[in-house]
Predict the structure of Transcriptional regulator, TetR family.
Amino acid sequence: MQIKKEDKKDRILKSAEKLFAEKGYANVSISEIAKDAKVGKGTIYVYFSSKEEILDAVALRIFEEFVDGARYALEMSKNLKEFLELLAEKLSKDVENRSKILAMFHRERLKDRSKYREITSEYRKVFMAAYERYRDEFKIPFDEMFAFMRGIFMSAYTMADNITEESIKIFLKKILLCFFDVQKDMDCGSGAS
Amino acid sequence: MQIKKEDKKDRILKSAEKLFAEKGYANVSISEIAKDAKVGKGTIYVYFSSKEEILDAVALRIFEEFVDGARYALEMSKNLKEFLELLAEKLSKDVENRSKILAMFHRERLKDRSKYREITSEYRKVFMAAYERYRDEFKIPFDEMFAFMRGIFMSAYTMADNITEESIKIFLKKILLCFFDVQKDMDCGSGAS
């Protein structure tokens, strides 16, 4: 039975993600990734032309999982509170490894983030759909809400060095529901500036 | 020598803050606060008509310290990076106790937050001044920047249950400088909605 191409690519990405998180980006070679993924080194070059490209693809997959998680939360929720709870659940998944990879991506690939920009625009679309669907429950403009959310999620991922996935999940639930309560006070200063 | 009125009020607030943080809001009586502050119970009622009012005043003082901290960071900084570093320094001060008090305030006083709104507008003014001063270094609109910052600071204060003041300071420095780097990507989705 022949192994499908997509399976091979997927195995390469899974091995790369695991090795990057364990050993750090600089300490992983393409040969090691090939060995762990049980493919030839030449096979890796069929899919990726460099280690940078592998990191891009690994990070992109994580971002895609965020978008899928947000989409799932939107599909399964009946109100804003449920949406936020499901979001906390989905986005805290595997946060310890994911945060390491995203920090690497941020550090190594700051100058070439075109794929990040694409996926961020997908993420934004899902939040826009949530904003439209639960319109009555949001008290602040969309761009502010989205910036606030990004501040929270970026915080959770930065914190992941210090606390566990379970603590992050609890943190996210707490703060998203807190956001839900206090957002009506957020634009209070608008008249004062 | 007669004790000045302001000293007494200050002592009451300091004792209340300490006792609330140690024992929880519900477990502290006005008599205990009086005893700890070395004033008569009647003296407390000269300044405050209820325990709720004491909590309001304690929380207000913390918010004022935030505003003072942000103002100090703005005065002492020569560029956005320095402003953010000083901000991280100032706003992580005494975060363990402060976060407890603010959580109490949030829980107990959600329905009467007029004083919170006033002070938030002061806080907003300082950030607006920073935004004007370092205009060239900010890539996103003010309201988005401010919402993003609030997401980060609210996160730090929510996290304070789990990690130490020192970790929060490191976290804040890291994430504020990260914000400084990535803000140029933040509005990337604007065309996509």
